[in-house]
Design a protein that fits this description.
mainly alpha, 9 helices, 225 residues
Length: 225
């Protein structure tokens, strides 16, 4: 199981520092319903990642992710494809970064979090956590790493729990600050949001290119095995 956790760890960390969900949770927390919707958002985030991961692991298991102790050919092909897609996304993020003296813009729909009901907040959390293309690709990469390790279903479940816990740290941290600092958290969270918005494109470009390099390297090693 250690191999499965080690191989999926980079993807989990990449999901954790994905800027968009972090900006979203900060907007939720500083809204009028921050205390309730913050916990709802966190629950949706965890459920989204865990649900997507469980489905992907089931699909990988039925497709046979291992072949005589080595990753199946389709796993290496998938890693190569995901790596190339991430390279393209990294370039897109880099080109879309704010120019010098340009004010970073938060997506207009995210400003509506202030009026979201708990149900809408949960739905938005699931979408940003598991259906957001960048996150979904990273979850697929993480689940492929777990599936090809050849561990039992119980160990896969533990690895998925670890993946979900790590990938949720970016959302958990602002929630902890909110409840620990009370009203004093407003200034801290606002600075976090501003910094993340200004640096989101660069952060994701670097993270995605690093994950892409690992996936492509693993794919090459799998083809050579």
């Amino acid at each position: 199981m250690g191999e499965a956790i080690g191989d999926m760890l980079p993807a989990a960390v990449a999901v954790a520092i994905s800027p968009l969900p972090i900006i979203a949770i900060v907007l939720v927390l500083v809204s009028a319903r921050g205390r309730v919707n913050g916990l709802v958002y966190l629950t949706g985030q965890v459920a989204g990642v865990a649900g997507a991961g469980a489905i992907l692991l089931a699909l990988a298991g039925s497709a046979g992710a291992q072949d005589e102790g080595q990753p199946a050919g389709w796993v290496s092909s998938l890693r190569l494809l995901l790596g190339l897609v991430l390279v393209g996304l990294a370039l897109k993020q880099w080109r879309g970064r704010p120019k010098e003296n340009e004010e970073p813009q938060t997506p207009a729909w995210m400003e509506a979090f202030d009026s979201f009901s708990p149900a809408k907040t949960a739905g938005a959390a699931v979408v940003l956590a598991a259906i957001n293309p960048k996150n979904l690709i990273l979850i697929i990469a993480g689940m492929a790493a777990i599936a090809q390790a050849g561990v039992s279903a119980e160990e896969q479940a533990v690895a998925l729990l670890v993946f979900t816990a790590i990938s949720s740290l970016g959302t958990v941290t602002p929630v902890i600050l909110y409840f620990a600092l009370g009203e004093r958290s407003t200034g801290v969270l606002d600075r976090v949001k501003t910094w993340m918005a200004a640096n989101a494109a660069v952060i994701m470009a670097v993270v995605l290119i690093l994950i892409a390099a690992k996936l492509i390297g693993d794919a090459i090693a799998g083809f050579a095995a």
